[in-house]
Write a structure and sequence with these properties.
Elements (H helix, E strand, L loop, with lengths): L3 H4 L7 H6 L6 E5 L16 H11 L3 E4 L18 H11 L4 E8 L5 H14 L4 E6 L6 H4 L7 H14 L31 E4 L6 H7 L3 E2 L5 H17 L7 E9 L8 E3 L2 E4 L1 H14 L3 E5 L7 H11 L6
Parallel strand pairs: 1-2, 1-10, 2-3, 3-4, 4-5, 5-6, 6-7, 7-9, 7-10
Antiparallel strand pairs: 8-9
Helix pairs in contact: 3-11, 4-5, 5-7, 8-9, 9-10
Length: 321
C-alpha cells in the first residue's frame, strides 16, 4: 500500500515554487553572492548579475538571497550586501525563468505589511518566481539597533507570519500586535499564486507542530543524510497529522569543487571539499532522505567561479533532472 508521501504531490503556488519543489526529487540552486570570499565577511559583488544570469542559462533552478541588515563582524558574513527586496526587483528584470528565493527574511525586524507588499511586488514583476524563506533572526546585535527586544522575537515572528497570511485575503479584517486592519482597505498587488510561498527556517523559535501546520515548506541546516531523514520523517508526520499534504524541505550546502572527480570529501564550514562524485553521492543520499532542494554556496570554492558553475552544470545537474 502506497504511503501519502508517495501519492500526494506538493501544493502548487507559483511558477518558482512549482519548478523548484518536486515530490521525491531533489533540485539544485545557488546561494548569492555567487563568488568566493573566504577571508572577508564582505563579498566583492563582481559580475553578480552576470553570474545569476549564467546560473539560469546553465539550468540551476534557483538563486537564494539573504537578509543581513548590518555587517556584524563577529557573525562573519554580510551576505550579498544589497537589501533583498531591492535586489529581487533588479533580478526580476534581469532574468526570465530562474526562481528567486530569500533565505531568509528576518520577520521580527520588519513590519509585515512592508514584507508582504515588497514580496508580492517582486513576485508579480518576476512572473511568479519568488519564494520567501522567513526566520526569527540569530544576530542579537541587530535588535537593539532597531529598538526591538531580542527576547520577543518568537511572538513577533508568529504575529508577523499570521499578519502576512491574512493580507492574502481581499479587504481583510483582523486584530494583530502589528496592527489591525478592519476591512476598509486592501493590500495590492496580490501574489500571482494567491499567496507568497512562506518557508520557515530552522525552528524560528516556534513549536514544531505550528511549523507543520502553517509553513509552505521547511528550510533546515546541513547535517548527514541519516540525521536529515529522521528529522524530515518527523516533520512530515506532523504535517500529515495536521491533515495537510507533504511540504517540501530544503537545505544549504557549502562546497569546494576540485578537479579530481574521485577526490574524497574533506570538511569545510557547513559542507565539504571534494570531487564531483562525492557531491553527487551526497546529494543522492539527501534526495533519498527527503530533501527536495539544495542551495549550493561557493563562498569557500577555490577554483574560478564560472568554471565551477559550468562543471556543476555539466557533471552534477544531469543527475537530478
Amino acid at each position: 500500500m502506497e504511503t501519502q508521501t508517495e501519492t500526494t504531490e506538493f501544493q502548487t503556488i507559483n511558477s518558482g515554487f512549482n519548478a523548484v519543489f518536486k515530490q521525491n526529487k531533489l533540485s539544485v540552486g545557488l546561494v548569492v553572492p555567487i563568488e568566493a570570499y573566504p577571508n572577508s565577511p564582505i563579498p566583492t559583488m563582481e559580475r553578480h548579475v552576470q553570474r545569476v544570469q549564467l546560473a539560469e542559462e546553465l539550468g540551476f533552478t534557483s538563486v537564494w538571497l539573504r537578509d543581513v541588515p548590518f555587517n556584524v563582524p563577529s557573525f562573519g558574513d554580510a551576505g550579498q550586501t544589497f537589501d533583498p527586496f531591492v535586489y529581487l526587483g533588479l533580478l526580476a528584470g534581469q532574468t526570465k525563468s530562474i526562481a528567486l528565493g530569500v533565505a531568509s527574511i528576518i520577520l521580527p525586524l520588519r513590519h509585515p505589511v512592508h514584507v508582504a507588499k515588497a514580496a508580492a511586488s517582486a513576485d508579480v514583476l518576476s512572473g511568479g518566481r519568488v519564494i520567501l524563506g522567513v526566520a526569527s533572526g540569530d544576530r542579537p546585535q541587530e535588535y537593539p539597533a532597531m529598538n526591538f527586544p531580542f527576547e520577543e522575537r518568537s511572538y513577533r515572528f508568529q504575529d508577523s507570519f499570521e499578519y502576512m497570511r491574512r493580507l492574502d485575503e481581499d479587504f481583510p479584517s483582523f486584530e494583530n500586535s502589528f496592527g489591525s486592519p478592519y476591512g476598509i482597505m486592501d493590500m495590492l498587488p496580490k501574489a500571482t499564486g494567491g499567496k507568497i510561498p512562506l518557508m520557515v527556517t530552522g525552528s524560528s523559535r516556534q513549536d514544531p507542530n505550528w511549523i507543520a501546520q502553517n509553513s509552505d515548506g521547511w528550510i533546515i541546516y546541513p547535517r548527514n543524510a541519516s540525521a536529515q531523514a529522521g528529522i524530515i520523517k518527523d516533520f512530515q508526520a506532523r504535517v500529515s497529522a495536521a491533515n495537510r499534504p507533504p511540504q517540501p524541505v530544503m537545505q544549504p550546502l557549502y562546497i569546494d569543487l576540485v578537479d579530481d572527480d574521485d577526490a574524497r570529501p574533506q570538511p569545510i564550514h557547513l559542507g565539504f571539499r571534494s570531487g564531483k562524485n562525492a557531491v553527487i553521492g551526497y546529494l543522492k543520499e539527501l534526495e533519498s532522505a527527503g530533501i527536495n532542494h539544495v542551495a549550493l554556496n561557493l563562498r569557500f570554492n577555490e577554483a574560478d567561479t564560472e568554471t565551477t558553475m559550468k562543471q556543476l552544470a555539466e557533471k552534477v545537474l544531469p543527475e537530478f533532472i
